[in-house]
Write a structure and sequence with these properties.
Order of helices and strands: HHHHHHHHHHHHH
CATH superfamily: ABC transporter involved in vitamin B12 uptake, BtuC
Number of domains: 1
InterPro entries: ABC_BtuC-like, ABC_TroCD
Helix content: over 70%
Radius of gyration: 20 Å
Distance between the termini: 44 Å
Number of strands: 0
CATH topology: ABC transporter involved in vitamin B12 uptake, BtuC
GO biological process, one term: transmembrane transport
CATH class: Mainly Alpha
CATH architecture: Orthogonal Bundle
Keywords: Membrane, Transmembrane, Transmembrane helix, Transport
Main location: membrane
Shape: globular
Number of helices: 13
Subcellular location: Cell membrane; Membrane
Largest sheet: none
């Protein structure tokens, strides 16, 4: 795969040198980030639509905060502080599955339980990060929290590609089952769908995508890019397939523009913040369209 990445970079850099593409394409780290954006855009658009339908808005946020604890654990056990994926994936999967298991065995409302786990993950993550802060570069922690195109390398790209393939192999065949289990659990059960199984699989997929996107978007903002494109698409669409397709386009557009704009105009903002701001502007535009267009006037949200 590294040879493939090198080939793409050489072609894009040649186009930038000839003036066909903007000047930021001359930099290797910008092309790396854009390749990642092309991978995560479809993932965030599809999963974000499902997250909105299933009303799991704060679930990805709690997983993102749990990743901070995973980073700290990775540093403590000697894993590379630039890409402690084993500890992040391991801890976040354990955290997410424990949260889902507890949801199914308590009378607490989902938002209350997620709030409890979110608070716990913040407290544990902050405590451990303060403990290991003397051992790592503070810029590394900034990239985990808010995202940074400077931190993206071949390892991050390969991880994203592997997660995308895993989501495609697991999620696509079960997409209709997951959707039906969310909208009509009784009908799903009558059709022989194991609701508990598809729920756990969906939790695993969201966790994998959340952790894989941390280098680009950051732990603090990954939830926003799961929700904002899907919400913007919902403003101006009437059918689920159209909403998913538009959410994919908005998420990909936000990632690409959010990466290129700060580089092109030398704006000193984190990558994750720029990406989310672009998505927020798209959401604002779709909100205005919905409020002023006769087609949507009077339609339910």
């Amino acid at each position: 795969m590294n040879a493939f990445y090198d080939f793409i970079r050489e072609q894009l850099q040649a186009l930038a040198a000839s003036g066909v593409l903007p000047q930021p394409f001359e930099y290797t780290f910008v092309i790396n980030a854009l390749l990642c954006a092309v991978l995560i855009g479809p993932l965030l658009g599809v999963l974000g639509s499902m997250v909105m339908i299933k009303r799991m808005a704060f679930f990805s946020q709690s997983v993102g905060n749990a990743a901070m604890t995973g980073v700290a654990i990775g540093v403590l056990v000697g894993e590379s502080y630039t890409s402690p994926y084993l500890s992040m994936f391991g801890f976040c999967l354990l955290f997410a599955l424990t949260l889902k298991y507890t949801q199914q065995r308590t009378q607490l409302a989902n938002d209350t339980l997620i709030g409890v786990f979110l608070s716990i993950s913040l407290a544990v993550g902050a405590s451990l990060l303060l403990f290991v802060s003397a051992k790592i570069n503070t810029h590394v922690m900034e990239s985990v929290l808010f995202g940074s195109i400077l931190a993206v390398d071949h390892t991050d790209m390969n991880v994203l590609l592997a997660v995308m393939l895993a989501c495609a192999l697991i999620g696509l065949p079960l997409y209709n089952s997951m959707l039906l289990a969310s909208l009509n659990p009784s009908l799903a059960h009558a059709r022989g769908i194991s609701i508990r199984t598809v729920e756990y699989l969906f939790v695993v997929l969201v966790t994998l995508v959340t952790v894989a996107c941390l280098k680009i978007i950051g732990a603090v903002l990954v939830e926003a890019l799961l929700l904002i494109p899907a919400s913007a698409a919902r403003n101006v669409t009437r059918s689920l397939p159209a909403m998913v397709a538009l959410a994919v386009l908005i998420a990909t557009f936000s990632c690409v523009v959010g990466i290129l704009l700060p580089m092109q105009f030398h704006i000193p903002v984190p990558t994750g913040g720029a990406i989310v701001l672009v998505a927020a502007l798209v959401f604002l535009a779709t909100t205005v369209i919905r409020a002023t267009s006769p087609r949507f006037r009077g339609a339910s949200a």
